[in-house]
Amino acid sequence: MKNTDLETYINNLLKVSLFKDYAPNGMQVEGKSEIRRVVTGVTASQALIDEAIRLGADALLVHHGYFWPGEPSALKGIKGNRIRSLIKHDINLFAYHLPLDAHTHLGNNVQLGKRLGLTGVAPIESDNPECLIFHGYLPEPMFASELAEHISTALLRTPLISHQPEQKIQHVAWCSGGAQNYLQQAIEYGVDAYISGEVSEHTIHTARENNVVFYAAGHHATERYGVKALGEWLQQQFNELEVQFIDIDNPA
Question: What confidence tens digit (pLDDT) does each residue in 233-243 have?
């Protein structure tokens, strides 16, 4: 498959043109024109690049790529090593950030809801394709401590929890990654609990004072599943592609 054809297909699938993002979505580093073997992963770290090289990948598809605001523009140090490795081995780098969070079939948030076994999973703004906050329902109410255990089992990560263990929860909102600042919108939507990847000091006070249980379950742990689902979708759609997900674990 042509690298440009793969980029066009994913761009259209994830509706990239609708998003104002922090980094460019699509092909960030151009490699060989023909793609057969694709490695997917959360972040384009050196460890993931090394795995892609070892597996003979033609393309690396990630959620966290490069060229973020405030990132040094010079290609030296860690950034230089990473991009040099990709170019040396002629590996294409594709990265999709907010479009992959928001997608209602393959995205990080819908996949997280499915992973947690929630029902009625949907964005809180159903008519907004850029909505990043999703909500859903536990099949049966749980104590806050039981939901913490459920999250730990599903994501293999023990979450930080804001509240006492006996509070009852059924209606849950969430946004994967570093989305603790969306807590207030979740509170206004009327949920019992909100899940994200990261936490700030003020987040706990906001959650407690509004009687909404907050869980920080890890940035990486909450964002494993979108890029994995996207890779599996691509393999289903294009028989010529071989796709493998590599999880370079990160406790943050």
Answer: 999 999 999 99
Q: In what order do the strands lie in the sheet with 26-29?
A: 26-29, 92-95, 59-64, 37-43, 242-245
The chain-wide mean pLDDT, for the chain, equals 97
Which residues pair with residue 60 across a beta bridge? Answer: 39, 93
* Residue 205 confidence class, pLDDT cut points 50, 70, 90: very high
34-52 pLDDT, tens per residue? 999 999 999 999 999 999 9
d(CA 153, CA 50): 29
Of 215, 206, 182, 245, nearest to 116 by C-alpha is: 215
CA distances from 229 to 105, 132, 141, 240 (A): 9, 17, 28, 18
Structure tokens, 160 = 């930080």
Tell me the H-state helices in the chain.
Answer: 3-13, 46-54, 77-88, 98-102, 108-115, 144-155, 183-189, 201-209, 219-222, 225-237
Contact between 173 and 134 (Cβ < 8 Å): yes
Compute the distance between CA of residue 9 and CA of residue 163 in angstroms, rounded to an integer.
44
Question: Cα 86–90–95 angle (5° rounding)?
Answer: 55
Residue 112's SS3 state is helix
